[in-house]
Amino acid sequence: MATEDQKRWDEKHAGKRGDQPSSSFLVEILSSASWQIAPGRALDVATGRGRNACFLAERGFSVDAMDISEVALQEARKTAQARGLPINFIQAELEQAALPGAAYDLIINFNFLERSLIPKMKNALKLGGHVIFETYLVDQRVLGHPRNAAFLLGHNELLELFRDFRVLYYREGKFVEQGNAAYRAGLFARKVR
């Protein structure tokens, strides 16, 4: 599976070590008393070094975590093993990944945008399942990475991509996470049909 994308992501992850904090948006959603999401089967798309997959597993979810980078997955496995978390790590080219139909209660996607994968994600969710999705907005180009429009959401685009879901929470704007400001859109929604 040695593709240019895999090599690029392997190089990016090669110099990084140690645990990263979970996404603050994910923590906000799953910690809110407003929504009760029972643990079930979850998929972490573009897991990287597994920070969010570990967060889900610690809360009782049975987690499949996918990424193209074997280097990132090796680090994620080490972290999961050190915490005693049984996470199923899967190396895959996400653009071409085959996802099982109606298999997941929760799918999360952070800092990754492959529009062609969204219909597959929707199909992989069980009826009543949830999606938590957050990534960069087009405004991010003024701050830095990423700059490529293919990897940036337009304003309200995330709402449009999930218009057939029941949107429970949505935000869009400039947010600070781990001391870094970024323009992001975040969505929490339920599959209703």
Q: What percentage of residues falls in helices of 4 or more residues?
A: 25-40%
CATH-derived architecture: 3-Layer(aba) Sandwich
- Report the β-strand fraction as a percent range: 25-35%
SSE order = HHEHEHEEHEHEE
Instruction: Write down the domain tally.
Output: 1
Strand adjacency order, main sheet? 3-2-1-4-5-7-6
The residue-averaged pLDDT reads 92
Major sheet:
7 strands, mixed
Q: Using the coordinates shown, work out and report the CATH topology.
A: Rossmann fold
Account of the 3D structure:
The protein is α/β, with parallel strands linked by helices and 193 residues long. The protein has one domain (4-191): Vaccinia Virus protein VP39 (Rossmann fold). It contains six helices and seven strands, in the order ααβαβαββαβαββ. It has helices spanning 4-14, 24-31, 51-58, 70-83, 118-124, 157-161, and strands at residues 41-45, 62-67, 88-91, 104-110, 125-136, 165-177, 180-191. Strands 3-2-1-4-5-7-6 form a seven-stranded mixed beta sheet. The protein starts with a helix and ends with a strand.
Give the gist of this structure.
This protein is an alpha/beta fold and 193 residues long. It has helices at 4-14, 24-31, 51-58, 70-83, 118-124, 157-161, and strands spanning 41-45, 62-67, 88-91, 104-110, 125-136, 165-177, 180-191.
Layout of helices and strands, plus pairs?
Layout (H helix, E strand, L loop, with lengths): L3 H11 L9 H8 L9 E5 L5 H8 L3 E6 L2 H14 L4 E4 L12 E7 L7 H7 E12 L20 H5 L3 E13 L2 E12 L2
Parallel strand pairs: 1-2, 1-4, 2-3, 4-5
Antiparallel strand pairs: 5-7, 6-7
